[in-house]
Design a protein that fits this description.
mainly alpha; 16 helices; three-stranded parallel beta sheet; 42% helix; three-stranded mixed beta sheet
Length: 361
């Protein structure tokens, strides 16, 4: 009989709600460890396309973003500015708008991008620069721009002076961790608001302070040497390269940035380019002007042999050991970097096409 009463009592308690059970309110079960960690970060990844025929090439892991009809001079910056005005993105942990050919350029999928971010948590911005061949051959992204537009460095210097930016950064031996551009960035809403406002101010100062003729040249397009078609306006090339300048600025220092490295880039560099990239990296780490000069000499010989002496003389600026400038606080700017490295074999790979270097075929 006692066993029957006990069973009946247990059945009644099982049916009762916490409010109707006798005695004090029952405690809720302890939260699981997963619950304590809080909600998963909301990462919004967009991939924009400019032409209908580009849409089939989008990665389904991204949110498709129709950019047809928005042919603005600043291209990617225009997309980012319009996205930053969307109210729902202020609630995202991170967001970014990447080009339709992101997968082809980087060799990464949206899923792999999310995995790399998850493996390097706690940063305000993540960026990718999937061009190791450019890092191997040029002092910085600004020197490379000279191969894409005539007088690019001279106009960039005018822009920097007018916008009150540090002109010495145009000559800095830029370490791999700071090689980056605006077109492959994911960041927090706070980072985007600050970064886009900073660029907007730089553009306003340039318009106000640059000589009118020089400012007009920023928005002009020179014909490409090979195809004869108009190239991107100089202002687009400048704005795309302002990421590392911002990270050096007072506004940018408040954020933590991380450069992600594609695990399997589409076309790994040849053995000479790998050695050149390693020399640059070690020269920056050791702050060795001697090794930097060795790199420049090796680079000049490689380019003269590969692309011709005329091209090398036109596009490679003289590099004197007593003029080497290293970043003063590079370790403070980029706190952590993904440890992923290219896994494809280097020796035995086919040569990269000349177009990958911004040079004639």
């Amino acid at each position: 009989m006692a066993n029957m009463k006990t069973s009946t009592k247990r059945a009644e308690l099982a049916k009762a709600t916490p409010e109707t059970r006798s005695g004090s309110r029952l405690r809720s079960p302890a939260p699981k460890e997963k619950d304590r960690a809080g909600p998963a970060p909301q990462i919004r990844l967009f991939q924009y396309f400019n032409l209908p025929e580009q849409r089939p090439f989008l990665d389904p892991g991204f949110e498709a973003l129709d950019n047809i009809g928005h042919d603005a001079p600043l291209a990617a910056l225009d997309v980012l500015t319009r996205q930053a005005q969307r109210a729902e993105l202020t609630q995202a942990s991170l967001w970014g708008a990447l080009s339709w050919d992101f997968g082809e350029t980087t060799g990464m999928t949206a899923q792999e991008l999310r995995q790399q971010i998850a493996g390097n948590p706690g940063h305000d911005a993540y960026f990718i620069y999937p061009h190791p061949q450019i890092e191997a051959l040029y002092q910085n992204v600004w020197q490379h721009g000279e191969t894409l537009q005539p007088h690019f460095l001279a106009l960039s210097k005018e822009f920097f002076r007018a916008a009150k930016l540090p002109v010495d950064l145009l000559k800095t031996l830029q370490p791999p961790r700071l090689f980056g551009t605006t077109d492959c960035v994911l960041a927090t809403p706070a980072f985007w608001n600050s970064y886009l406002a900073w660029i907007s101010m730089a553009l306003k100062l340039a318009e106000k302070n640059m000589p009118p003729a020089a400012f007009d040249m920023l928005y002009s397009s020179a014909p490409d040497e090979q195809t004869g078609r108009a190239t991107a306006p100089c202002i687009r090339l400048i704005v795309e390269r302002l990421l590392s300048v911002y990270l050096h600025s007072d506004e940018g220092r408040q954020f933590k940035a991380c450069k992600l490295v594609p695990a399997n880039p589409p076309a790994p560099p040849d053995v000479h380019l790998r050695l050149l990239a390693d020399m640059r990296r070690v020269a920056c780490q050791s702050r060795s002007t001697w090794l930097a000069s060795c790199w420049a000499n090796y680079r000049d010989l490689y380019c003269a042999e590969r692309f011709g002496a005329a091209w090398a003389s036109k596009h490679l600026k003289p590099f004197a050991a007593n003029e080497v400038i290293f970043p003063s606080n590079e370790a403070d700017i980029i706190s952590t970097v993904s440890t992923s490295t290219p896994t494809a074999a280097i020796i035995g790979q086919p040569q990269l096409p000349a177009a990958a270097f911004g040079v004639p075929a």
